[in-house]
Amino acid sequence: MINLRPVLLVIGTLVATLGCAEMVPAIYDLSLGIDDWQVFAASSLFTVFVGLSIHIATRGGSANISIRQAFLMTAGAWIVLTAFGALPFMLSSLHLSYTDAYFETMSAITTTGATVISGLDKAPPGLLLWRGELQWLGGLGVIVMAIAVLPILKVGGMQLFKVEAFDTAEKILPRATQISRALSAVYVALTIICAVFFYLAGMSKFDAVVHAMTTVATGGMSNHDASLGHFDSLPIELICILFMILGSLPFLLYVRFLQGHPSDLLRDKQVHGFFIIAAGATFLAWLSQATGGHEPGLLELRDATFSVISLMTGTGFTTVDYSRWGIFAITLFFIVTFIGGCSGSTSCGMKVFRFQIISISLRNRARELLYPNGVFLQRYNGRTLSDSAVNSVMGFFFLFVVSFLLISALLNFLGLDLITAMSATGTSMANVGPGLGNLVGPAGNFASLSDSVKWILSYAMILGRLEIFTILVFFLPSFWYA
Questions:
Q1: Continuous segment of H or E residues that includes residue 459
Q2: Burial class of residue 217, CB neighbours in 10 A (0-12, 13-18, 19+)
Q3: pLDDT by residue (tens digit) across 381-401?
Q4: For residues 339 and 381, what is the distance between their CA atoms, to the nearest angstrom?
Q5: φ, ψ for residue 285 (rounded to 5)?
Q6: 121: nearest Cα among 222, 220, 234, 237
Q7: What burial letters (b/e) apply to 349-376, b meaning 16+ CB within 10 Å?
Q8: Most buried residue among 78, 125, 189, 368 by CB atoms closer than 10 A?
Q9: Residue boundaries of the structural domains of the chain
């Protein structure tokens, strides 16, 4: 059996940290004289108590963790933190059911951005701040996980991005602590700069802080029902586009940039691929508006650029209802939703590098057919691609598609029409937020869905956020008894 002591030690520490974070909206509500501060204070004390109790009960053991313990730690942390993070939503003046509270928290902490809350413009400010804070913390956790944990676990080809310092699973915790300091510094700096820019562009201080957190985290939760369209400001949209892109590029390359190696960022194939795909999708989205009755012009280019970047990065902010642009645009955005940004960033989706590796593999297979006696090396970013890495990527694609089809079919069985079922599943697994159609599209939200559908979509969010394998491995009996 698996020794859970090291796993619970880490989870307990994270739960206590989350409890401390809950004091921020408590203090903010208290300063405004809003009664919800008591909810956050009580939730904070309870969460800290439970977290510290777990930490104290499990400390003193070995700090080393095995591969199986690393899987448990990664998935368990997201599930447990969501359970405690949901308490303020349930106990606040909004009186959300625990299902809705859990869905909202899972959406926030996985940086998905789907919401069940209507009337955001009049919602308690502490809750709006808590949503932004959850997305911000979730985005930071995703970066550390993608750099320190998933490469060791060889999840979906992530071994290609293994940092040399992380030689074995036993080094995850101490090494992750060291490198996360540099990553956290970059993350905090980008957030502060983004908030200042938003404020100078016309946002209130509160809006600027919350939107900066959800922009850099590529989460997309807004303080307004109309999302970023509420401001109807070109400067704000341009700032948002810039920081959504910055949040979608590999954060380790920023660290390398600051260390005096700017060429690493410029030479990275993932970065090249991201901009090529984004530019091509923007051009097609701009042209597609003609089929929706709009003559492509500068205003349409502005809307197309923002929508493509928002969906491709997994942020999910909206300024217009792009579902009205016609079937071609809808299909294009559906595809862009799955692509995502770069590995090692806060963005979601399948990630650009996987599409690049599949392209390299297919091209190599074609060459082998043409030249049976030839020897062709598969290389990516200057490194030789091993067969295991390529197979991991192929396996990820297969499981992603199968999971998407199964969950879509299940939602359709539970009463959703096929388009809504597929859209809700896709946007949840890709951690984007808004889907397609009137129900879960950019002009709607997820509030009207049944509780069973919300629980399934919560599972889909964490399935996509943790790269499929990290969740599905728990269904193997050999995982528990090997």
A1: helix 451-465
A2: buried
A3: 878 888 888 888 999 999 999
A4: 19
A5: -65, -35
A6: 222
A7: bbbbbbbbbbebbeeeeeeeeeeeeeee
A8: 78
A9: 5-247
How is residue 141 written in tokens?
A: 């956790």
> Quick one: tokens of 13?
């520490």
341 SS3 class: coil
Position 171 confidence tier, pLDDT thresholds 50, 70, 90? very low
For residues 318 and 442, the answer to whether their CB atoms sit within 8 Å is yes
Looking at residue 160, its amino acid is: L
Cβ(165)–Cβ(151) under 8 Å?
Answer: no
Q: The tokens of 319 are what?
A: 């300024």
The angle subtended at Cα 464 by Cα 461 and Cα 467, nearest 5°, is 145
As a residue count, the chain comes to 482
How many whole angstroms separate alpha carbon 254 and alpha carbon 243? 13
Q: Reduce the DSSP state of residue 379 to 3 states and report it.
A: strand
Between the CA of residue 270 and those of 209, 345, 410, 463, what are the distances in Å? Answer: 30, 11, 34, 23
Helices (H), 234-297: 234-247, 251-258, 263-267, 269-288
Which H or E element spans position 383? strand 383-384
How far is it, in rounded angstroms, from Cα 31 to Cα 26? 9
Distance (Å) of CA 140 to CA 29, 58, 164, 190, 228 = 25, 25, 21, 12, 22
What is d(CA 86, CA 82) in angstroms, rounded to the nearest whole number?
Answer: 6
